[in-house]
What we know:
This protein has helices at about 5-25, 40-65. It is about 70% helix and about 0% strand. Keywords: Membrane, Transmembrane, Transmembrane helix. It comes from Sphingomonas pseudosanguinis.
Amino acid sequence: MNRVRPILIAIGVMLALTGALWIGQGLGYIRWPEQSFMLGRGEWADRGAFTAVAGLALILVARRLPRRR
């Protein structure tokens, strides 16, 4: 149980950064090749927003866990 908090925070940060990347791609700030596996731009922005919010929620939950002593 001692190591759960830092692991959850690390996963939350990775989810938030991945979501930010997908939002950037969906809004047109990040260019991907036209023939890539990417979906439409609006779908990437929506999925990125969900992923970023899930990551931030995971960070908030992990911060409420007791710290290691």
